[in-house]
Amino acid sequence: MVRTSLDLKLRLALYGINQETFYYAGVFWRAILPEFDGIINRFYAHILEHQKFRKFIPNPAMIDRLKVTQKAHWDRLFTSKFDDYYVQQVVATAEAHIKIRLPIYFYMAAYAVFLDELHAAAYRNFSEEGNDVVAIVKAINKMVIIDMDLTLSVYMKGLVGLNSNQAR
Q1: Mind listing the domains of the chain with CATH numbers?
Q2: pLDDT of residue 56
């Protein structure tokens, strides 16, 4: 297990994540939940177009399990208040990526695809509500970027440890 201090209070303050952010993240999640399976399906269709990514999913039966895991991840992200359970899941996600040696650029590319989908969903669901769409997009960005930050912080420490162990 990777041991790391994530200093959530500082990160939340730096990102400007507050009760308003949590509120709009929750509003957004409840609104797009009915269409989220489609978002996940489009995500996996996209990444599986790429041969280098397919090697990380050697068994097509894994995709159904990964879709359930993805949906739980996004639900946790948009409904949590960054509690201990959320942090445990961030560490577990990073450790799983380290174990399969997923390149960081694959992880970042996956988030780029999801951000495109999440932004499109925000505009589809909230564009007629004026300023709400701006607040919702800001909440999406903050939640997604802090999630990437936390996961990559654990991931990087794990890679350093992995490389140190291999050097011995």
Answers
A1: 8-163 (1.10.490.10)
A2: 87
